[in-house]
Write a structure and sequence with these properties.
Structural class: alpha+beta
Distance between the termini: 29 Å
Bound molecules: zinc ion
Helix content: 10-25%
Length: 272
């Protein structure tokens, strides 16, 4: 019997004190809460991203059907990642970075984007080409005031110089279709976490809602999970284990309060 009788209460993940697991705990509790809203839609969506996300979705289904615990699935995915890159995803009392975890898990293996390089000084613009763009983006240096404003000018670093005028070229990239899931990384910034972000790709608009925030401090990660109705839940693998604790509502919390959680500061936000 779950000790919390509220059906909307997100499942938590209990921290592994032998093999520190907080980066996985903090991200997976949010992704599981999103997935369980619509298992068929999200299994499909995750499977289209890459094999690790597909494995995660299949694992979530096993958890949902109560065949295994979320901790078992976390450990299985973690083992796969460790085999892939044991430096980024160590075992033992070393924590991985949640950004490394996000960038590896949400890397696209499809040509889901269009890229173009152009010169801001002269008229030169290169040919558009199909490209891959993961579903996690670092917006730390994008000089935007809020997460809503980041997509207007999505650029990635470019070392190429213009053949015509030798000015540094700008590399612009856009998704072909607006994504359903997006992680934005913006630690150490004053960027406000918009409650909703509206993404426009060509003539298609999609609105994604803030569904979770991951915080870091004192070598530990914790998270807030946000239900579709705006209820905020707190999960910390050490303090709350596999329960989540109600922690206010999105309509009454300030942007400043969203930045900080239990003396830890925001690292990334999850929109879906
Ligand atoms: Zn030029």
């Amino acid at each position: 019997m779950p000790s919390n009788l509220n059906l909307n209460c997100p499942v938590g993940l209990e921290w592994d004190s032998q093999d520190y697991s907080c980066p996985y705990d903090s991200l997976f509790v949010i992704l599981y809460d999103i997935w369980k809203e619509n298992p068929d839609k999200w299994t499909n969506n995750f499977a289209n991203i890459n094999r690790n996300m597909q494995a995660l979705a299949y694992g979530f289904r096993e958890v949902h059907e109560e065949n295994v615990s979320l901790e078992n699935i976390r450990d299985a995915i973690r083992k796969d990642l460790h085999n892939l890159d044991s430096n980024k995803f160590p075992m033992g009392k070393n924590s991985a970075s949640v950004a490394d975890l996000g960038f590896t898990l949400l890397k696209s293996t499809n040509e889901n984007a269009i890229s173009q390089v152009y010169c801001t000084k002269c008229d030169y613009s290169g040919m558009e080409y199909s490209d891959q763009l993961g579903y996690i983006i670092n917006i730390e240096k994008s000089k935007v005031s809020s997460t809503q404003k980041w997509l207007d000018n999505l650029e990635i670093p470019c070392r190429q110089k213009c053949d015509e005028c030798s000015n540094k070229l700008t590399h612009q990239i856009d998704y072909k279709e607006a994504p359903d899931l997006l992680l934005l990384e913006y630690p150490h910034t004053n960027i406000k976490s918009s409650h909703k972000i509206k993404i426009k790709i060509q003539n298609e608009y999609k609105v994604l809602s803030l569904r979770g925030i991951i915080y870091h401090g004192n070598n530990h990660f914790c998270s807030r999970i946000i239900s579709p109705d705006g209820t905020i839940w707190y999960n910390d693998g050490i303090a709350t284990g596999n329960n989540s604790v109600e922690d206010g509502h999105l309509s009454t919390i300030s942007y400043k309060e969203l930045k900080i959680c239990n003396q830890k500061t925001l690292v990334l936000a999850v929109y879906a």
